Amino acid sequence: MTSDAIKIAALYKFVTLAEPDAWRAPLAKLCNEHEIKGTLLLAHEGINGTVAGSHEAVDALLDWLRSHVEFGELDAKFSYSAEQPFLRMKVRLKKEIVTLGVEGVDPSRNAGTYVEPQDWNALIADPDVIVVDTRNDYEVGIGTFKGALNPQTKSFGDLPDWVDEKLDVAPDTKIAMFCTGGIRCEKSTALLKAKGFDNVFHLKGGILKYLEEVPQERSLWEGECFVFDSRVSVGHGLVPGPYDQCRACGMPISQEDKAHAQYSEGVSCHHCYDAMSDEQRARFADRQRQINLARQRKINHLGADLKEARARKRAEKELQRRRSHGEVVDDQV
């Protein structure tokens, strides 16, 4: 199988769906017929998800979606893989396609103004513009735009509190927001407009589109961009970066971080070591031994990797809980 045999599409569209459940069965049927795997989320506010399959299969799905007026301008970004990265196809109904937790925020009707990547530099270089990174703190930690504010959120649902408590600017202030691929900043600008801010802008296509289209010599981006796939981070031209990922908590880690005494592959890193119980570390260590053995035997260990991802989510929730109770302070680890 060639290195780009599988096409991976990350897609979303904010659009009012009166009956999101009506789309569920047709989408599942189409994906299963084309042997597409991954996850699609449906809600009254639209569609979001990541799917993978042959080039022809993914193109057929996108053609089908875009043939309907609701998804005529569906946004999709692509990457490629030698192997299918997902085990099964899931089409799920959700309250929100990206969880903010605020009623009445409608990006399909009241989002900010799109700014093309080629025009972004001029906007954020204006000293009168407030630039806000809408991503989580660990993402911002490895790269962001020069001069951008970091709300220091642990999840996207923390952003409304930051807006209410920290964004102390006049309603007519120009505010530029950005995120990885466009979905979070689009919803963030809708949040701000709902709160009375009038001059709100967001980067079309997100950081990824900017890094793809804007030459490095003209770029105002500093560092790497965290991505939610096996690349972990990318730089200009979407070239995979130097970061790996802690398989226990999901945090991006550098080669220097791996030299830390509290790092153990698949078990812990300096971000999560103090939040792990002995039982968790023992379980993660046993899981890592199984993964290593499968790799030595050249066995496809996708199932184990999926279990690893689920375990990592559980560990991350525990880490967030302990942070919220003041048990873990990042500056101390």
Give a verbal description of the structure.
- With 333 residues, the protein is of the alpha/beta class.
- It is 35% helix and 20% strand.
- The chain has helices at residues 21-33, 55-66, 107-110, 117-124, 137-140, 159-166, 183-194, 206-213, 255-258, 278-296, 302-324; strands at 6-14, 37-43, 46-54, 75-81, 89-93, 113-115, 129-133, 143-145, 174-178, 200-203, 221-223, 225-226, 233-234, 244-245, 252-253.
- A 5-stranded mixed sheet has the order 4-1-3-2-5.
- Strand 9 (174-178), helix 7 and strand 10 (200-203) form a beta-alpha-beta unit.
- The radius of gyration is 20 Å and the shape is globular.
- The termini are far apart.
- Residues 321-333 have low confidence and may be disordered.
Write the layout of secondary structure elements.
Elements: E1 6-14, H1 21-33, E2 37-43, E3 46-54, H2 55-66, E4 75-81, E5 89-93, H3 107-110, E6 113-115, H4 117-124, E7 129-133, H5 137-140, E8 143-145, H6 159-166, E9 174-178, H7 183-194, E10 200-203, H8 206-213, E11 221-223, E12 225-226, E13 233-234, E14 244-245, E15 252-253, H9 255-258, H10 278-296, H11 302-324
Parallel strand pairs: 2-5, 6-10, 7-9, 9-10
Antiparallel strand pairs: 1-3, 1-4, 2-3, 8-11, 12-13, 14-15
